[in-house]
Amino acid sequence: MAWIYLLLAAFCEIAMGVSLKLNEGWTRLFSSIAAIVSWLLSSYLLALSLRALPVGMAYAIWNGIGAIGLVITSALMFQESIGPFRLACISLVLVGLVGLRFSE
């Protein structure tokens, strides 16, 4: 169950990043509320996952999934560039996450 909590926390982290982009400096009410709620939910789910997972590994995986997911989501939603160098860097992060997962 801890891994499910961690994945859900990472998805909430992605939602928070998108909400922060959409809230235009905290000037849009709905996006601002969504950012705060997704941040709180992400933190809560991460804390639940830490009951069974080591904090360093869980935090790194949570952050990495959030970062990769946000790069991909922002490319799709906001047409941000995602060239070969960025893809290579994302691949390195992904390899690191997989390595952390299986290093237990």
TrEMBL record:
Keyword Lipid biosynthesis: no
Compartments reported by the entry: Cell membrane
Keywords: Cell membrane, Membrane, Transmembrane, Transmembrane helix, Transport
Membrane topology qualifier: Multi-pass membrane protein
TM helices/strands, residue ranges: 27-47, 59-78, 84-102
Main location: membrane
Top-level lineage group: Bacteria
InterPro entries: EmrE-like, Small_drug/metabolite_transptr, Small_multidrug_res
Sequence similarity: Belongs to the drug/metabolite transporter (DMT) superfamily. Small multidrug resistance (SMR) (TC 2.A.7.1) family. Gdx/SugE subfamily.
Protein name as annotated: Guanidinium exporter
